[in-house]
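Hey, sorry to bother you again with one of my protein questions. There's a protein on my desk that I can't quite get my head around. No rush at all, and the record is pasted right below.
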Amino acid sequence: MVGGLSLRANGEKETKKVEKISPSYVGSSKCKTCHAATHKSWQKTKMANTIELLKPGERAEAKKKAKLKPKHDYSSDTNCLKCHITGYKEPGGFGHPEKSKKSPLTSTSCEACHGPGSEFTKIMKTVKNNKKAAPGTEKALVAAGLILPGRTDVTTKKVKGKEVMDTSKLVCLSCHNKDSPMYQEFDPAERLGTKGAIHDHSKLQYIKHDYSPKIEPAAKKKKE
C-alpha cells in the first residue's frame, strides 16, 4: 500500500479508505512515564494549579482590578474552564472539575500546550521500548498531533486554510489574549525563549534521554 492506494499486480490502482483517527486527551500521568523531571518541574508552576485560581478568595486584588467578584466561585464558569483546565469537553478531556478533584486534567497540563496525546504517546511508547528513535520519528509524532511550541522546523498547523509553521503564538495566545478579563501583555517568543517554555515563576526543566535525540538530546554519560 502506498499513501492510501494499494497497487495490484497488473499496475492498476485500488483506492482504499484510510481511517483518520482524532487524538484524545490522556492526562499528564502518561507524559510522566518518560518525562518525569519535566513533570516534576511543571508541578511547581502556576500552570499546574490553574483551577485553584478560579476559586473564591484566590487572587482577590487581581480579580477586583479585572472587575470580577473575588468571593465568587468561577470554577464552573465555562468561559474560564476552557483555559483553566485541559481539553474542556473535548474527547478524553475534562468535563467538569467537581466530578473528579484528583483528575490530572484539572489544570493547564502538558496536553494543553502539546496537544491531545492518545496517538503520539503510542509512538513514544514504541520508541522507549526500542530505546532509540527510528528515522522520521519526530515528523510522525507531529503528524500524530504533537505540538512543539517554538519549533518552526517541524510544527505545521493549518489556520483558515494557511499553513503556520510556528504554533507557539497559536498555543499561548489561545488563552493569553484580550478576551481574558485578566489579560496582561504577553509575548510568547519571550516566554518560550530558545531552551524551553517559561511560565510565571518557574522555568520548565527538560530531561535528556538517549531514545529521542532530536526532541531532547542525549545526556552525556558521567564517568565512573
About this structure: The first helix runs from residue 28 to 32. The longest strand covers residues 5-7.
